[in-house]
């Protein structure tokens, strides 16, 4: 039975006008063997429509120089089209474009939980953006991070999990770890809670492997590895703020991101460090505690908080 849709698809194919869906439909018909005779006829007609070679004066009518070989060529093409590789022989198929999905958590928001396509879970801190390939179609489960996130990775030895955070990439098979990549900090920190993580700043460089309760800090184009006492680095996933000998500039950045408020510290306090644990305290309460610890005072003016003091103890 003559198939009009097949004819239309074939003609659109010759003009390179098929959509991806239409191309799949044409390929299905080629594999079905239901329209072999019609396909051969269309191939013959397509050949007949090609320009002929003009003959000289007084010679025979114009002819196609390869016409006598065409039946065998058409049969060969038809046979190829029936095979599993026909789709690629008929038309080069472009590599699929991997779509990126974006999850974000704005400044001033509580930590947000996200489940990835492989059932790994991620907690996003405030002021964080996470991008990942939908369905993880590539050779690895790649995500891109700006901000801070805590990952609990589902194990899949055949497809490593990788986090690209600025100049640093962390690769794992299945583990729990935290990555902090806030541009304002001018540092990238990877903290491992369980399992192992390999961190690297360039493909040519030797990766640094971290075990449980180890942290790699990338600053000044170099890694520094240290041991952390506990999992306080991810206390933020529980809504807590834990500072243990934390540089004051980093404390300020964390508070600004957490509460979405501008905080200014005078120059005399810039090099101080701060200790403190907070759960449900408000920003004024936290800044008041900081000011007391720094032998200074905190004040608010026109929506901006200021901490002044004479210097560290």
From TrEMBL:
Residue ranges that the Swiss-Prot or TrEMBL entry lists as coiled coil: none
A GO term for molecular function: sigma factor antagonist activity
Domain of life: Bacteria
Pfam families: FecR (PF04773), FecR_C (PF16344)
Protein FecR C-terminal domain boundaries: 240-299
Domain FecR protein span(s) in chain numbering: 109-197
Entry protein name: FecR protein domain-containing protein
Organism encoding this protein: Chitinophaga parva
């Amino acid at each position: 039975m003559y198939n009009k849709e097949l004819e239309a698809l074939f003609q659109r194919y010759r003009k390179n006008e098929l959509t991806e869906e239409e191309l799949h439909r044409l390929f299905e018909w080629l594999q079905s063997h239901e329209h072999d005779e019609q396909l051969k006829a269309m191939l013959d007609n397509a050949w007949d429509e090609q320009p002929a070679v003009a003959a000289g004066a007084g010679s025979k009518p114009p002819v196609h120089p390869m016409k006598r070989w065409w039946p065998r060529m058409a049969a060969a093409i038809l046979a190829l089209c029936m095979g599993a590789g026909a789709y690629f022989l008929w038309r080069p198929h472009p590599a699929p474009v991997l779509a990126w999905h974006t999850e974000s958590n704005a400044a001033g928001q509580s930590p947000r939980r996200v489940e990835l396509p492989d059932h790994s879970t991620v907690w996003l801190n405030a002021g964080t953006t996470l991008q990942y390939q939908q369905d993880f179609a590539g050779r690895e489960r790649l995500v891109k991070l700006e901000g801070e996130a805590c990952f609990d990775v589902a194990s899949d030895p055949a497809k490593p999990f990788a986090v690209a955070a600025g100049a640093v990439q962390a690769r794992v098979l299945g583990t729990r770890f935290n990555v902090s990549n806030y541009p304002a900090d001018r540092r990238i920190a990877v903290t491992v809670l369980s399992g192992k993580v390999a961190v690297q700043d360039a493909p040519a460089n030797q990766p640094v492997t971290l075990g449980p309760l180890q942290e790699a800090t990338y600053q000044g184009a170099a890694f520094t590895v240290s041991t952390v006492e506990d999992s306080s680095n991810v206390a933020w996933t529980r809504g807590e703020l834990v500072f243990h000998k934390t540089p004051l500039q980093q404390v300020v950045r964390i508070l600004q991101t957490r509460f979405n408020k501008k905080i200014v510290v005078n120059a005399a306090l810039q090099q101080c460090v701060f200790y403190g644990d907070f759960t449900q305290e408000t920003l004024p309460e936290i800044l008041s505690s900081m000011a007391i610890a720094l032998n200074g005072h905190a004040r608010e003016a026109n929506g901006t908080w200021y901490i002044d003091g004479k210097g560290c103890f």
